[in-house]
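Input sequence (206 aa), recorded before submission:
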Amino acid sequence: MLVYGPSGAGKKTRVMSVLKKLYGPGAEKIKINARVFQVSSSKKVEFTLVSSIYHIEITPSDMGNNDRVVIQDLLKEIAQTQQVDVGAKQRFKTVVINEADMLTRDAQSALRRTMEKYSPNLRLILLANSTSNIIGPIKSRTLLVRVAAPSIADISQILDKITKKEHISMPRDQEERDQIYQNIAAASDRNLRKALLIFEAMYSQK
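Predicted structure, token format:
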């Protein structure tokens, strides 16, 4: 899958929902690990990855021009390793690749080869803001899922739901509350992550 859309639209949230549906609540029990990769005969670099026993989340673009090494070595290793949980709902492992549109052409070519070779054991979910920098062979091998930015009304509704769930003190008048939510949504440029941060900052400052 290639999930794309603007920042703060909810791509990662949707992907985590898919993983939970595939594997159950164990997909949410994550840990952070550091791996060291040999990028040349004399140079090693450290790379951070987030994982559960069912999936791994990586951001290869953090490695700059060395992203191809991560794609080749790490995905090959994951694909050749059996699923840890023998009772898992799915036999394959899933790798979530953040900022897929920031990968170099070499890394994307390596990714395409990996998709072809290890598809029985491995499923890839790519996250990107745009598909314009992603090579055709990858786009043709993935299901493209566009996530649009939430509307002002969507964000207002979510903020109202949070207010009730967290028992946050707000004006009693619904119209006044709605105006506050709409102001936050407008200030966030329809970026839900940013809207939540603004709301949290307002709450902490009373």
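Checked by second reader. The chain has a mean pLDDT of 88.
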